Amino acid sequence: MTTQEGTFLEPGHRHVPTQVRPHLPGDCAAVAAILSRIGDKWSVLIVMTLAGGPKRFNELKRGIGGISQRMLTLTLRGLERDGLAKRTVFPTIPPRVEYALTPLGHSLRVPIEALGEWALTHTEVVADARRAFDARGGD
After folding, report:
1. Does the residue 99 lie in any domain?
2. Which end of the chain has fewer CB atoms within 10 angstroms, the N or the C?
3. Which pTM value belongs to this model?
4. Where are the beta strands (DSSP E) in 1-139?
5. Who contacts 29 (Cβ-Cβ below 8 Å, separation ≥6)?
6. What domain range is 60 assigned to?
């Protein structure tokens, strides 16, 4: 395999070399599964929306522009399955359902906020890089 500007992992790799992250196990499948959940744009937006406190389904849908009902349902189920969010059904008529972050979900706030700050800080630099890339034809 040829390397390109620091790329040294083959597509579909399951191992992060020990010189990069010595504390990770040899098989990174579990880490990859977790990163795919918390790296999903809808998951990030839901976590940050729930950071302010419990919300009902329609509150979440209104607060997160552009998410379909199906995608919100699937993402909430995934967050619940991974222990990041909890669903509480209140015995009223009709039943009232709220979603909230678990302590594990709240622990994601700091890294997500840090990524958001990084993105805000570097928006123009990234935009300049994209324009330069596009101007030279993307090669």
Report:
1. yes
2. C
3. 0.71
4. 55-56, 85-90, 96-101
5. 14
6. 29-107
18 domain-assigned: no
Q: What is the dihedral of CA 30, 34, 37, 39, to 10 degrees?
A: -120
The Cα–Cα gap between 112 and 27 comes to: 25
Q: For residue 88, which amino acid is it?
A: T
Q: What is the pLDDT of residues 84-122, one digit of tens each?
A: 999 999 999 999 999 999 999 999 999 999 988 999 999
Those residues whose C-beta lies under 8 Å from the C-beta of residue 75, and which sit 6 or more positions away, are: 40, 42, 43, 46, 67
Which tokens go with 45? Answer: 């937006």
| 49 belongs to a structural domain | yes
Give CA–CA dist 125/48, Å, rounded: 25
Q: Is residue 71 part of a domain?
A: yes
